[in-house]
Amino acid sequence: MKDVLQQLAEKISQMPYIADEAKRDTHLHLVAKYAVDAIGALISPAAGDVRANVFGLTQTRDGLVCVESSRKKKPSPFLAGEAETREALEFLSSGERIVLYHDLSKSRPASWGRQNQTGYKSFMSVPIAAPDPDSHDGELKVYGMVSIDAAAVDVFSTNDEHVAELVADLVATAFAIDDATAHNA
Fold first, then answer.
1. What's the CA dihedral at 84, 89, 91, 94 to 10 degrees?
2. Which three-class secondary structure state does DSSP give residue 152?
3. What pLDDT does residue 118 have?
């Protein structure tokens, strides 16, 4: 665990020293790659075949795009105005730390209707959020979310939830550094 998270932390620690916006964006994608790799390495083997994704909010903050995925084919973006996007954004603004569906055949996001759109059997999402430097109330600024899909039902342990939250918190640091650097440029 230490080795996997140390590699991610080292990539994040380089962020403040990258002034060029294009290079910083490329490096943020690298951080996201290390994050999905960390999730793959740290999620319980009982979860089986998992897909980990890092989604970032669009510039207009009305959609989400996949920054990095553990699969070659990235998931489709969450487009502005779509029901699934509204539901994801509501979750991200709710202040909840995690949304978890152990068995998508029994319970799934309302926007999915009767269909399981992913083909996966369980999933969880965790906000990528960091303290907002412009807030005096300790509010969090949301940058996106980490999602993890599993091919089997009821496989995520409490430890897996903690791994997802920890990785999301680390990635939030990178997004916050990128945001602060972009505003100070």
1. -150
2. coil
3. 64
Neighbouring C-beta atoms of residue 47, cutoff 10 Å:
19
**Residue 82 pLDDT > 90, yes or no?**
yes
Please state, in angstroms and rounded to a whole number, the distance separating the CA atoms of residues 33 and 58: 18
Which regions of the chain does DSSP assign to beta strands (E)? Answer: 50-57, 64-69, 99-101, 122-131, 140-150
β-strands 64-69, 99-101: how paired? Answer: unpaired
Q: Is the pTM of this model over 0.90?
A: yes
| Torsion of Cα atoms, 174 then 94 then 76 then 110, to 10° | 160
**CA gyration radius, the chain:** 16
> What does the pLDDT look like over 89-142, one tens digit per residue?
999 999 999 999 999 888 878 887 655 566 788 999 999 999 988 888 878 999
Indicate the SS3 state at residue 133. coil
Domains and CATH numbers, the chain: 2-184 (3.30.450.40)
